[in-house]
Design goal:
mainly alpha; 3-stranded antiparallel sheet; elongated
Amino acid sequence: MTPPANLESIDRRSVLRAVAEYDELGQSEFLSRRGYGEARNFRLVHEGRFYDSKAIVGVAHGYATGRFLDNTEFSGGLATVADRLRELGFVVDHGGKHAHGGLLWDLENTTVFTRGGKGAAYKFVVLRWAVDGPDPQREAVPLSKVRDELAALLAPYAVADSAPRPADPWVALRSSGWWTLHLPDGVEEGGLTHQELHKLAVKDDLAAGLNEAVREKLGDPLWRDEAVAVLTRRIAEVSAGLPG
């Protein structure tokens, strides 16, 4: 009889060996060879990249004990895989019960403005500035206070002949899970276009910043480091025109 899976047998080294195998094979081949499906919610985040957490743990168990776990031998939820990976010093990204991912996965799925086949990394540049700049802007601040600073940060990522306008990502980030844009009393966002919001941001000097959920997460140094790593990777990928 096959002994029950003991996730306590897994150590950090075995997880990193599984991650290295994943990197070498790529997601599709790794999952196919090991008999796992794609993660629906829980993902290991390591050095700014995402990994199907249950598959990583099943393979890590093999590297640690010699027995590679079948997909059916253990669950991949919060109280099993996620807890064990966190105990080993890793970050696991997840959302609510019916979510497809958490705040870090939101970054992977954030759309960007494109022109002439080039993607603009503006949103990610502003988020990285807010999370990890010389003076991180964790609280909402008026646009005028940081406009010049943001203009200098955005300039190298221009995708048009004109310089990037800081008000664009300032208002566009409202659709992400990371940002809160503070509108004047009585103004409803629903009926406003991006251009109208842009004008309003400049005219009324709208304040914006990281939302409460993100600020709470940033209290964990490991999570913050992975957030910076994901943002840095996304900036590089978008700027290079890479998919994903």
